[in-house]
Amino acid sequence: MTTQIYYPQDYRINYLTLIGNNRNLDMTNLVVEFSYFEDLFAFSVTGYVILRDSAGYTELKQMVGDEYLEIDFGKTSSDDNNSNIVGKYRIYKIDTIKPVGNITSEIYKLYFCSEELVLSEQNKICKSFKGKKISDMVKFILTDRSTSGKLQIQSSKVTIEDTTGLYDFVIPIMKPFEAISWLSTYARPSAFPESADMLFYQNRDGFFFKSLQSMYGTKVFAKYNYIPKNLPDTTIEEKIFSILDYEIVKPYDVISNINTGVYANKVITVDTLTRRYYTKNMNNAISQRKKLNVSDVLSPMSNRLGISQDQSYDACLKMYVTNSNQVDFEYFKQRQGSIEKDIFAEKYVTNRTIDISSLDHTRIKFVVPGNPTLKVGTVVELNIPKLNPTDKTNNALYSGKYLITAIRHLIESPTVYKCIVEASKDSYDTRLATINTGDPSIARNLS
Amino acid sequence: MSFMGKDGFVWWLGVIEDRNDPTGMGRYKIRIFGWHTDNLQELPTEDLPWAQTVLSLNGSIGWSNALEGDYVMGFFLDGSSGQFPVVLGKFSGLDNSEIKA
User: Fold this and answer.
1) What CATH code is carried by the domain that includes residue B51?
2) What is the sign, positive or negative, of the torsion defined by CA atoms of A359, A364, A370, A371?
3) How, if at all, do strands A12-19 and A68-74 pair?
4) How confident is the model at residue A268 (pLDDT cuts 50, 70, 90)?
5) Which of A252, A380, A381, A442 is a good FRET partner for A360, with 20 to 30 A between their CA atoms?
6) pTM of the model as a whole
7) Is B49 among the domain residues?
8) Quick one: which of A350, A353, A359, A355 has its CA closest to A250?
9) Would you call A340 and B83 a contact, using CB atoms and an 8 Å cutoff?
10) What is the number of domains present in chain B?
């Protein structure tokens, strides 16, 4: 990617142009701060630009809410334009305008998001799908180019993972992005039919409808090391992939994990048509999901009543309506069109509960030198050293593979471009060693 | 929704479009106002989900006493997902022929 690195946080803004109705404005020289956000659990890229304006452009350029922002920025040292973050976004809000310097200039913040988010907010969709895959429904909502298409996004900007199962759904009048998010709760990836972890998000490359399992399976995008600062023999490459700062935001939280179903959950489903009900238990051992790292987060220790973490099914109890197994009833088989297709409530509820909640078992926030290719939905490997400087091995609990769940590309001065990253993991990188305190009641072996 | 009955009672008003339930269980196809478009191309009657009825316990089995065009009220078993409608009852009111007259 790089020909010559000048400085780990170097950057170059090729375009930062406000586009209005015949009133374009190059804002490159007005920028005080620029932020570009991606979030795995949000529908759209968002961001803001703080400007210092001594010409009164809000009035001169008649900024009234119909402007766009064209962005193209990347590394100074990069000769690969594909690595740049490039896009045209919709400015949707101007924050408080403050005069500074005896009213010789003013500072204000322009907020932007994808145009598709605004389109989604402006429209509603209501459509029936009979016997369709959820991935096909999502593709239709995003890319339908007919006159009734609500978003009409180019297919090249959309990546949709195939899902399993055929469904009869009527999308009840909803915003298109809301409809996709709603569909994602039912969806199971065809490559991992025992999971229910589809997410809908946007990053620098476009819109994605993708499973956590397939994200976990991608190769490590970058390896970052936390190294002592100002060492004389640190190379520029080492600095580029160094962690400037980090914070373990959520080392673990047992009460939260119990309630969100990280360890175990249960669903009771009721079928009012066939007058049956079903109960399904799920835990980490039953779940066939892949993990980011090698070792489970479960402790084999039991509580003083003899119940282990993954046996506490009732801690996260859900109740849903179901139509499971209706197709097997002879009565309905003989009456075509009398029932809708199975929604697989027992599968999607229990699996989604554990798949989504497990991701957030451990969460870290870290800062690295700006890298425009870093994006949500990718796996990074973090090497966090032990506190003991003589021990060169990594911290067993907090090192390892993480999935980037949110990222902020921040430019805040002519020399500072950094990425503030939030990443999560569902497992430990190293099989934990036996810790035997001599007291058998608290001895544990996680290997 | 995560717990049926604890996450709110989502009720609705709709109009019956089909009462020919192939199962003979007295279900209806109902176009629900604000949830289902009135555009028949986007959502034809045949694609509407079957809505079960909640019957009174007074000994009546009268599930055929509502007709196409009747306005009804009900709720969704699956809350705001809106795929499992249930009818609670119908509204008294003028029928279409009386309105035209």
Assistant:
1) 2.40.50.260
2) negative
3) antiparallel
4) very high
5) A442
6) 0.92
7) yes
8) A359
9) yes
10) 1
